[in-house]
Amino acid sequence: MAAVRPADRVPAGEMPLTMVPVMTRPTTLGELRSAGWESIPVAEELRRNAVARIRSGEPMFPTVLGYEDTVIPQLENALLAGHDVIFLGERGQAKTRLIRSLTGLLDEWMPIVAGSEINDDPYGPVSRHARDLVAEMGDDTELGWVHRDDRYGEKLATPDTSIADLIGEVDPIRVAEGRYLSDELTLHYGLVPRTNRGLFCINELPDLSERIQVGLLNVLEERDVQIRGHRIRLPLDVVMFASANPEDYTNRGRIITPLKDRFGSQIRTHYPLDPDIEMDIVDQEATIPVVDGVGVVVPDFMSRLVVAITHEARRSPHLNQRSGVSVRMSIANQEALVASAVRRAVRSGEAVAVPRVSDLDALAASMAGKVEIDSIDDDRDGETLNRIVRAALLGVFREVVPGELHRGVVEAFEEHDGVSVGEAVGSAAYADVAAGIPALATAVTVLLGDEMDGGDPPAALVASAVELVLEGLHLSKRLNKETTGSRSRYQIRA
Predict the structure, then answer these.
(1) Scanning 55, 100, 146, 255, which has the fewest C-beta atoms within 10 Å of its C-beta?
(2) Which pLDDT score is estimated for 453?
């Protein structure tokens, strides 16, 4: 439920004293009535605040990218309709993040009966404790205030999840203290009642055993719970959300039909359709290592390569596409790539770390746990991942380096004895190579583009561009490549 607060009444919660307003929140039920606060259902609260955000043109979920034209319009419709929602999609499609972001559509503060375990509405308490307290104290009933972040409950479904976890159970300690089993005060409320007047989410719903799923039917339809045969009815005000991976229906369990029927909306999520969107997600989520004395620059073409590897994996017939290829792979690959560049910069004493093609070897560890390879021979897993990386690199090379520049570089190599690259080769050496081969320097200049900032680029940035051009020409079968240890040499094809 929600609060409609007058301008001179700003509720305060547990915050530093410097942040508590002079005009504090109502502290008793009588003061709350005088302030004009009104109680509305959570679904109505979500609807009202969603409408306000749509009307203002603000992004509904600013940290969730790539769903603006697909998932979010469906979710907005569900919120306006007051539906409980189940999200279906493969791993790494921001289902949980999307659900957690919904707390931003709740009012910031909400009053409850002080000491209530289930966020009792001061105007309509449902627990025995709160009912007795309001009946005894009337308008002098003390209030507590709950922040919207505390009005969200979440449970990761597991096969051993019990009804007691979700709904509640008789507390043997309270019975031992002298109360009768039939006394409502002996009950220990589960996660769902404790999220009363808020949002509750069950992640990986198919993992919940079918008999436990049955226990949620009343919550979704009748909006009440029953505990251990007690003659008790708790009319809860909860908006339910759930997430599920369609692959889990056969692997670990299923969602029973009556439960699916009770969710008002079922929304399918997806991976980013546009590589540029996924690049934005990677920039938002990836953690870049901070090392004293070493700055990190990730050129656009390397970020594009990281995302291209993920998109190539999603198209590969050698990978299990039913389990999906998560955006987490793009994030982990970006982090591993940058880490490799930082490690090289630290060893060589360079002030700027820029990922190169030679750093792609670091992706073997970050990719291995993110994909499921359909291969009988496990020894070929590495080769499968290498093929994906090579295909992605070739695609990016053709995209960012104009075809008319290829011939010039290849012709220059006819009069050049070759170029050595690798982790042990310093950035200055790459810059010297580019300066000595004008056609290669032209390709580097075009490749770097906006990275130049009107001046000479750092040598580390030039090194990254040189490696991409050379490897792209090799994969295009225009240059030979001989690898010995950590060093490779590019030269004209015989």
Answers:
(1) 55
(2) 66
Give one DSSP letter per residue of 241-254, joined into a string: EEEE-TTHHHHT--
- pTM, rounded to two decimals: 0.84
- pLDDT tens per residue across span 232-242: 678 899 999 99
Superfamily covering domain 17-268: P-loop containing nucleotide triphosphate hydrolases (3.40.50.300)
Neighbours of 382 (CB within 10 A): 13
CATH 3.40.50.300, the chain: domain bounds = 17-268
Q: What is the largest CA-CA distance in the chain?
A: 97
> HEC string of 176-192?
HCCCCCCCHHHEEECHH
- Please, are residues 442 and 412 in contact by the beta-carbon 8 Å criterion? no
β-strands 168-170, 152-156 pairing: unpaired
CA distances, 301 to each of 306, 355, 392, 405, 467 (Å) = 9, 10, 12, 17, 12
- DSSP H helices in 229-362: 248-251, 257-262, 275-285, 300-315, 327-348
pLDDT < 50 stretches in the chain:
1-23, 250
Apex 479 CA angle, 478 and 480, nearest 5: 135
